[in-house]
Amino acid sequence: MRLIASLLVVCSVLALAGCGRGGGSQKLQGTYVEGYHVSGVFKVHETEYALRPSFIHVIRFGYYGIKAINDGNLAHALAIEGHGLHKRTEEIQPGQSATMLVLFLKAGRYELYCPIDGHADKGMKGTVKVH
Fold first, then answer.
1. Cα–Cα distance between 7 and 29 in angstroms, integer?
2. Which residues partner with 85 through β-bridges?
3. pLDDT digits over 5-46, tens only?
4. Considering the entire predicted model, what is its pTM?
5. CATH for 31-130?
6. For a 10 Å CB count at each end of the chain, is N or C smaller?
7. Do the beta carbons of residue 68 and residue 98 sit within 8 Å?
8. Hey, where are the domains in the chain?
């Protein structure tokens, strides 16, 4: 009985100290974009002339990163607009990527597109829906 009680005390102490599986140190780690802790990073692959995925669903407000990955043969960029938000990456060369910090404060739909040389008109556009 004493052995079981001792093991329970040791396990409780380890859990409180953040040691062991899924300890507290993992909660302190996270993903940062431009110095801000973000709830997640969405990857958007750009090619001639499409965004993949073309629809992103965000279930809560907060800071997020959007990583644009140029898988195409031409230079691209990525922009997002809606509800007072206007952000864009710099021009991204083929094989390169860029990540932008986005703060979603309002529910609704946001337009996601490539702002270079009419690429959006050729199909490089999508939607971010925030609840």
1. 29
2. 82
3. 443 333 333 333 333 333 322 233 579 999 999 999 999 999
4. 0.77
5. 2.60.40.420
6. N
7. yes
8. 1-26, 31-130
